[in-house]
């Protein structure tokens, strides 16, 4: 399983680093697991709080992915959901493969039309913005939501719980529990929909 994490300027750091940690540890436990980062042009991106990251790939040379994670943050609200190339990349991935968002990454999925007719959640401060997409069935108070190959999670740290649940679904409780132990992570009480 190859997991890709989308990066863009002003991305919320924990939105992508949390899932990266979960899938990174999974790759040490499961031979077929791998995780990479991708941005529009492959150039370094600057996170919301200044972290600079060199993506592994650009859109034009990214290998096929089994799962794409779309994080949130100011960059999702202001840049990624308004960028045609980013939306095209996200839509192209989601044609036949699962996609997930963390926090306001749900706004990118909504703008791409991937949440039409589906239940979805996002950071509590962006619920009203998500409601502006009339075809999205907004769910408040859920840590994450799964529907028809699309997963969305609430704010920031919920991305860790979402990633752990995705690992559990694909590789079982034993692998997910081992990751929690390695991270010394205390799982949030999950309201799963």
List keywords for this structure.
single chain; 193 residues; alpha/beta; Rossmann fold; 7-stranded mixed β-sheet; two-stranded antiparallel sheet
Report the count of strand segments.
Answer: 11
What class would the helix/strand composition place it in? alpha/beta
State the separation between the terminal residues, measured CA to CA: 24 Å
In which range does the helix fraction lie? 25-40%
In the predicted model, the low-confidence regions spanning at least 5 consecutive residues are none
Characterization of this structure:
The chain has 193 residues and is an alpha/beta fold. The protein has one domain (2-183): Rossmann fold, CATH 3.40.50.880. Helices cover 36% and strands 19% of the residues. It contains seven helices and eleven strands. The strands form three sheets. Strands 5-2-1-6-7-11-10 form a seven-stranded mixed sheet, sandwiched between helices. Helix 1 (13-29) links the parallel strand 1 and strand 2. Helix 1 (13-29) runs parallel beside helix 6 (158-171). The longest helix is centred in the first third of the chain and has 17 residues, at 13-29. The two termini are 24 Å apart. The mean pLDDT is 95.
Task: Please give a quick description of this structure.
By secondary structure, the chain is of the alpha/beta class. The chain has seven helices and eleven strands.
List the helices and strands and how they pair.
Elements: E1 2-6, H1 13-29, E2 34-39, E3 45-46, E4 52-53, E5 57-58, E6 67-70, H2 74-78, H3 84-94, E7 99-101, H4 105-111, E8 119-120, H5 127-131, E9 137-138, E10 144-147, E11 150-153, H6 158-171, H7 173-183
Parallel strand pairs: 1-2, 1-6, 2-5, 6-7, 7-11, 8-9
Antiparallel strand pairs: 3-4, 10-11
Helix pairs in contact: 1-6, 1-7, 6-7
